[in-house]
Design goal:
- There is one protein chain.
- By secondary structure, the protein is an all-alpha fold.
- It is built from five helices and two strands; from the N terminus they run H-H-H-H-E-E-H.
- The protein has helices at 13-30, 37-41, 51-70, 96-113, 133-160, and strands spanning 122-123, 131-132.
- The longest helix is centred in the last third of the chain and has 28 residues, at 133-160.
- It is globular, with a radius of gyration of 16 Å.
Amino acid sequence: MSRPFASIVDAPLRTQLDTILDEHRAALDACLDGLTEEEARRRLVPSRTTLLGLVKHATYVERVWFGEVIGGIPRTEQGLPAAVADSFLLTEEDTIASLQAAHREACAASRDAVTGMTLDDVALGGHHGPLPLRWIYLHLVRELAQHCGHADILREQILAAR
């Protein structure tokens, strides 16, 4: 999995990106730790953003970028919604355990999808056109960092209300 952040200062860029991406993945996964199902589903903002929804969306993001764009498997074949906004929608079957498991599986599949690729290799799937792996990594770090910030704020509000 990932190495401690400070240990990658002199590592190759690919190792640095893998580590930072894995740290963000782990932080989103951990935002649900110790919460009740109700707390994880609690809406504290007008949007559909909840902690459970953020983890479900992060799973969607992994499957779109690494399954569709890199792996060439269309969203429909992966059982994913066409619209990004719908990736935050929760069903009654969605639980902390089920979504953490799905997220961990998606992250593992993402790591497998890029095995053997270099940062300059180009992915051809998806509607964005050809994209180098380097760009995909940077996009994912940016997106997951943003969602980690959302999760930090929501979790802080939930814990403060206990």
